[in-house]
UniProtKB/TrEMBL annotation:
InterPro entries: Helicase_ATP-bd, Helicase_C-like, P-loop_NTPase, SecA, SecA_DEAD, SecA_motor_DEAD, SecA_X-link_sf
Ranges for domain Helicase C-terminal: 855-1005
A single cellular component GO annotation: membrane
A GO term for molecular function: ATP binding
Protein name, entry field: Protein translocase subunit SecA
Protein's GO biological process: intracellular protein transport; protein import; protein targeting
SUPFAM superfamilies, A to Z: P-loop containing nucleoside triphosphate hydrolases, Pre-protein crosslinking domain of SecA
Gene3D superfamilies: P-loop containing nucleotide triphosphate hydrolases, SecA, preprotein cross-linking domain
Keyword check for Protein transport: yes
Species whose genome carries this gene: Zophobas morio
Assigned keywords, A-Z: Cytoplasm, Protein transport, Translocation, Transport
PROSITE patterns per record: HELICASE_ATP_BIND_1, HELICASE_CTER, SECA_MOTOR_DEAD
Helicase ATP-binding domain residues: 485-641
């Protein structure tokens, strides 16, 4: 070796040695106390074994904590935790590790029972490396078992859920930190601020381990020479060819069969496996051999097994290291030591960074600060000169329920905080958008909850608001609202009344920013998707200044959501969207929420969600195989209903005729009135009796599992058929829209509450199908509910202390008592920043037939005054009636605008001018802000007419709140129908005052609330708990079963659950035992399925048979066909086969090919063994199939020829979709 080369080699070795020495000098943290096996597993990203964790934990306690810890337990479940807690002795502290959601996601709990004078006190310190609170169910069970218990949680986030391998070692390190905390004898509550090690602090641990392995390898010169040769021998040209071929295959896999570019695939394959390339590979790896375990091994693996194992360990560890400057410095040392090409290795890891960046594109991010800075509006001077003084605002603030006096000390405290914010703002008033963004970066996830922390945060937000709005500052009531929400929260949530027009959207964003800076994720629940979308649009720039991402989970036109929305820091959406997305995930069959926890929730219009719709249940319902046969039952019922209606009308007419003919006029009038009343009361009962007598569920080929169901549901179906005919009307309960295929579709409207169009909702229990038959629309499946959760149950998934709500009208004391009974929350009221300029006009009761005309006259009277009017109607039908009357009087003095569909949302962006008449439904009754121009305000402002009697004073106030916002002028009145009054009165009379009407209304509301508290809450809690038991069971029982066969078992179990629920029909009156006992009853019924055998619906057995047929396993297929026949009692199974035959015959193949394929696929006869066909078996099978299908064909034929069908059909132009659907036998 020449001197120059020797000198260079010597210098390189010195550099390697110095690098190794520098990294090796770093002190170990987590890995220090591990044995070799645990250390290797951890560094390589493999979870530690429980027995090793137990051994290591006991060593740590013995070494550091023998004087503060008595026992250690590593447990498997919450049940084990509860049992251990119940067995604990006084004064003997216990440390426990137990898993959260996965077997390796360990949590830490310290538990001690202390003797006191009155009763024993239990203290629990809880630490989850993921930063979560203790599971709600476990917390409830603990508090149920122990009266005096204090749970203190440290929510510092150390790990993400995808770092599962690290939970064990990090929890061991947490035991050390906990013992250190206990040894210092600090106050229990200080545990929340204790600093725990984060995984990012362990970068040096990984690098040190890599360098140690590298040091061992670099001493073996023979291995280094072999390694270099091996790497050089790999043909570099192979890589792009492999990539090209696999990309082609990937692209083609997404194409239809007709679009496959076979020539392109062939060319790429030939290029990859060309003779030259294959020869090259054979030459380079000619020494590859097969070992005793039939695994291929390279020459280098055979000659250097230990060294190759260590090399593998090096790269396993590097997979878990953050790729940064330190990483590349260590990689350079490794490359030099092992004589590897550093640039190649560097480019490989840089490509991984790019891949991660691509993955990060699926995460919602805040807007870039530079873009925000460019878009800031020009600053202008703005001040609130007519705001109420602070002392007046403070005098009106209420903290607590109505009737309770607010503590003066609370008000003084709030005043001091407000003044401190004003003072703090002075130090921020010249800050730029970049200054605020830098401050937010330093505080995100770390903002404290002290008084000083909150004061500074609000001052900074005030400045940010000033910049993004072009000069506006937060109003005093908005700042006070945030302070009130966070003031003296004693482990309870808080609901605030903030009047309409006071900027609830701004207040939500202020509270959300504080919570995000404290490390939380925030869900903002609204009453309709328009408010959710507006909330994001109006606040996105403000959130982005603080580096906070925001999104909405609103559904697109195709019913899907942006899959990354649940990664946002703040997520807006309707409570229904949140519920459905939770339900999709609850059975472990999807990951819609991306693992998002139930952290902090802000409820906008909380009264609507928790009182008006508190009993609402979100349901995921599915159609199940065989349900299409129920269409014949619905058709029978509807046809019988038409006949029964005509028959009943004929009887009524005859009875009235006899009364008139056989009695004097006065007596005839009395008997006539009596007859009408009697017939009206008994009509439904009589018609039901007539329909039942026709035996509408007697369908000869109805599948066995549906027969009992149909019998139990008949009365409900009859009730819904009557409701569909007489009480369910277009433009009130539903709307007919045209779908993409030109057919009609029934879309329900939430007309009584939000007014929104429920495009994805299908009514249950036959109602949707009867409305479809009513309009001769193609029938959809009946669906059954398998997953559900109530509004109350969903909100209860958040911790009480993290529930915040706001509304314009908090409601009566009775309503507040109800909410307090359900949740651990308190209340507050915030004053308006300007005195309200609102006048309510006396209400008017109008005869039903005159209502629309009277509303039109009222509208024009205010238009004549130079004002504008908003009319809130109960339904679209009412709205159209008013519009028709206005059209008769149409002139240039007024302009009609509409707001009754989601697409009318832009109406709120245009200012309301003199003569504007806005006809709306309840969709405009909450949260909408109609901005009036100066001329309208000068003439008295916007006038609101509510055309129905709201169910309570609070809902009435919401509708009236569309006017007189932010100190503007306005007025409102009720114009209602006479029948609404009669429904409230015990007996009909004309001399009722409007005050009495409202009193009767409020009395009925009080009784409704009483019933909710006494009955519905019990029923909803029971149902939610019951579903929780099923979801947990289903998820755990089926999570490890991945076979195609078991997929059908899962479906059978879920369907049985849905049928069982429907049959049970749980209500407050029939709930007598604990949900756990009821669920045990279900498990007993489902035992056969739980044991892995399909037993409820034969169609799932056919599904398994088809799977095995497709994979050539005819023996297994035959077994499941026989199982299907056994379950069904041979009911219509062959009919299902014949339908598959029909589909197959449409492929266009030759007759012989089709016949042979059928014989092979469906009769288990091998295509290549056609000579051995037993024709008697074939003939028997086809005869049976034909017999079954002919039964259905003959039934449909008879139905089509039946004169009763004519009573269902509507005269219409073009194709009758209902009739077409019936003839085709196709069901959506």
């Amino acid at each position: 070796m020449n001197t120059k080369r020797a000198g260079a080699l010597s210098q390189r070795r010195r550099q390697v040695a110095e690098g190794i020495k520098a990294v090796s000098a770093v002190q170990d943290t987590v890995v220090a106390g591990m044995d070799e096996e645990s250390r290797k597993n951890f560094l390589a990203g493999r979870p530690c074994k429980p027995e090793k964790l137990t051994e290591d934990a006991k060593k740590i306690i013995e070494t550091y904590g023998h004087n503060v810890v008595d026992k250690f337990f590593l447990l498997k479940s919450d049940k084990d935790v509860l049992r251990t807690l119940n067995d604990a002795e006084i004064g003997k502290p216990i440390i426990m590790m137990y898993p959260n959601r996965s077997a390796h996601m360990w949590q830490l709990m310290y538990f001690v029972v202390q003797k006191t004078e009155k009763e024993n006190k239990i203290t629990i310190l809880f630490k989850d490396p993921a930063g979560n609170d203790i599971a709600q169910n476990l917390e409830k069970e603990i508090k149920k078992s122990f009266e005096n218990v204090e749970i203190i949680t440290n929510t510092q986030k150390q790990l993400n859920k995808n770092q599962m391998y690290a939970y064990g070692p990090v929890t061991l390190e947490n035991i050390k930190t906990l013992i250190n905390f206990l040894n210092k004898h600090r106050q229990w509550l200080e545990f929340t601020d204790e600093n725990f090690l984060k995984l990012k602090d362990m970068q040096q641990d990984y690098l040190k381990a890599v360098i140690e392995l590298t040091t061992e390898l670099k001493e073996n010169d023979k291995f280094l020479i072999a390694l270099k040769k091996f790497l050089n021998d790999i043909p570099v040209a192979l890589v792009p060819l492999v990539n090209k071929y696999t990309e082609t295959l990937q692209g083609m896999s997404e194409e239809d069969d007709d679009d496959l570019k076979c020539e392109e695939i062939s060319n790429n394959r030939n290029e990859l496996f060309s003779k030259g390339m294959v020869t090259n590979l054979k030459h380079q790896f000619k020494n590859m051999s097969i070992d005793s375990e039939n695994e291929f091994k390279l020459e280098i693996q055979k000659n250097f097994p230990k060294e190759m194992t260590k090399l593998n360990e090096i790269f396993e560890i590097l997979d878990n290291v953050k790729i940064d400057k330190e990483f590349f410095e260590a990689l350079k040392i490794i490359s030099q030591a092992l004589q590897l090409d550093f640039e190649k290795l560097k480019s490989f890891y840089e490509s991984r960074i790019r891949a991660k960046e691509d993955e990060a594109e699926n995460i919602i991010k805040s807007d870039a600060i530079d873009e925000i800075a460019k878009q800031l509006p020009e600053p202008k001077q703005s001040s609130c000169t007519d705001c109420s003084p602070l002392h007046e605002l403070m005098a009106e603030i209420v903290i607590g329920k109505d009737g309770e006096d607010s503590e003066e000390s609370d008000k003084n405290d709030l005043t001091d905080k407000y003044m401190a914010i004003v003072e703090k703002y002075e130090s921020w008033k010249n800050a730029t958008i970049y200054d605020i963004n830098d401050w937010a970066k330093n505080h995100k996830g770390n903002l404290g909850a002290t008084e000083d922390d909150i004061i500074e945060a609000v001052a900074v937000m005030d400045r940010a608001f000033h910049l993004v709005t072009g000069g506006f500052q937060l109003r005093a009531p908005q700042i006070l609202s945030v302070l009130v929400f966070l003031h003296n929260q004693q482990n309870a949530g808080r609901l605030c009344q903030i009047k309409t027009g006071e900027g609830k959207t701004v207040i939500v964003s202020l509270l959300a920013v504080i919570k995000c800076l404290q490390g939380h994720r925030v869900d903002v629940l609204t009453t309709n998707p328009l408010l959710a979308a507006e909330g994001v649009t109006e606040t996105k720039r403000f959130y982005s200044v603080f580096g906070i991402s925001v999104a909405t989970n609103n559904k697109g036109s195709d019913g899907s959501i942006n899959p990354s929305c649940y990664t946002a820091d703040v997520l807006y959406g309707t409570i229904t969207n949140f519920q459905f997305d939770h339900l999709k995930d609850s059975l472990g069959e999807s990951n819609t929420r991306r693992g998002r926890h139930f952290d902090v929730v802000i409820l906008d219009e909380v009264d609507s969600m928790l009182i008006d719709n508190g009993g609402h249940i979100a349901k995921l319902a599915s159609p199940y195989p065989g349900m299409e046969y129920l269409r014949y039952v619905y058709i029978n019922i509807w046809a019988a209903l038409q006949r029964a209606d005509a028959e009943y009308a004929k009887e009524s007419k005859q009875e009235i005729k006899e009364i008139i003919l056989n009695n004097p006029i006065e007596e005839a009038q009395i008997q006539y009135d009596s007859c009408l009343e009697k017939r009206s009361v008994n009509k439904y009962k009589a018609i039901k009796k007539i329909i039942s007598a026709t035996d509408p569920t007697n369908i000869p080929f109805l599948p066995k599992h549906l027969r009992d169901y149909a019998a139990s549901q008949l009365d409900t179906w009859l009730t819904n058929a009557l409701h569909a005919k007489y009480e369910c009307h277009e433009h009130i309960q539903y709307r007919l829209i045209t779908d993409e295929n030109g057919g009609k579709k029934v879309v329900p409207i939430d007309y009584q509450n939000t007014g929104v169009t429920m495009t994805k909702t299908i009514w249950s229990k036959g109602l949707h199908q009867f409305v479809q038959i009513k309009h001769n629309i193609e029938l959809t499946y009946e669906t059954l509910t398998s997953s559900y959760i109530s509004n109350l149950g969903y909100v209860n998934m958040y911790k009480d202390v993290n529930i915040y709500g706001m509304t314009g009208t908090l409601g009566s004391e009775a309503e507040q008592d109800l909410l307090s009974k359900i949740y651990k929350i308190d209340f507050a009221k915030i004053p308006t920043f300007r005195a309200k300029q609102f006048r309510e006009l006396p209400g008017t009761v109008v005869e039903d037939d005159d209502w629309a005309e009277r509303v039109a006259v009222e509208i024009l009277s205010f238009v004549d005054q130079g004002r504008a009017a908003l009319v809130v109607c109960e339904s679209e039908e009412d709205l159209m009636a008013v519009e028709q009357n206005l059209q008769l009087l149409k002139d240039d003095e007024f302009r009609v605008r509409f707001y009754y569909r989601e697409e009318h949302a832009d109406e709120t962006t245009e200012k309301v001018k003199v003569g504007d008449v806005i006809l709306a439904t309840n969709i405009a009754g909450r949260g909408t802000n109609f901005k009036t121009d100066k001329v309208v305000e000068g003439n008295g402002g916007l006038h609101v007419i509510v055309g129905f009697l709201p169910c309570n004073l609070r809902v009435e106030g919401q509708a009236f709140g569309r006017t007189s916002r932010q100190g503007n002028n306005g007025s409102a009145q009720l114009v209602i129908r006479r029948r609404e009054v009669n429904e409230l009165l015990p007996e009909i009379r004309e001399d009722v005052s409007f005050e009495e009407v409202k009193a009767l209304r409020d009395s009925a509301e009080f009784k409704r609330l009483e019933k909710i508290g006494n009955e519905f809450v019990k029923e909803l809690n029971f149902k939610d708990t019951l579903y929780g038991l099923f979801a947990d069971f289903y998820r755990k029982e089926t999570q490890f079963a991945a076979s195609e066969e078991y997929e059908y078992v899962r479906k059978d179990l879920k369907e049985l659950w849905a049928f069982w629920l429907e049959k049970k029909h749980f209500t407050a009156k029939n709930i007598t035992i604990d949900p756990s006992a009821v669920f045990d009853e279900f498990k007993q019924k489902a035992k056969t399925i739980i044991d892995g055998e399909i037993s409820h619906n034969a169609y799932y057995a056919i599904g398994v048979a088809d799977y095995y047929l497709g994979h050539g396993n005819f023996e297994e297929a035959q077994k499941f066909v026989e199982r299907a026949i056994e379950i069904s009692g041979d009911m219509n199974i062959a009919g299902a086969y014949l339908k598959k035959f029909e589909a197959f015959f449409e492929t266009g193949s030759s007759f012989l090919e089709r016949l042979n394929e059928i014989l092979k696929k469906y009769l288990h006869i091998n295509f290549f063994d056609i000579k051995s066909i037993d024709l008697s078996v074939v003939q028997s099978s086809l005869k049976k199939a034909r017999s079954h299908i002919e039964n259905e064909v003959e039934y449909v034929k008879g139905l089509m020829e039946d004169s009763n069908l004519a009573t269902i059909l509507l005269p219409e132009e073009g194709e009758n979709h209902f009739l077409k659907h019936l003839r085709s036998g196709r069901v959506v």
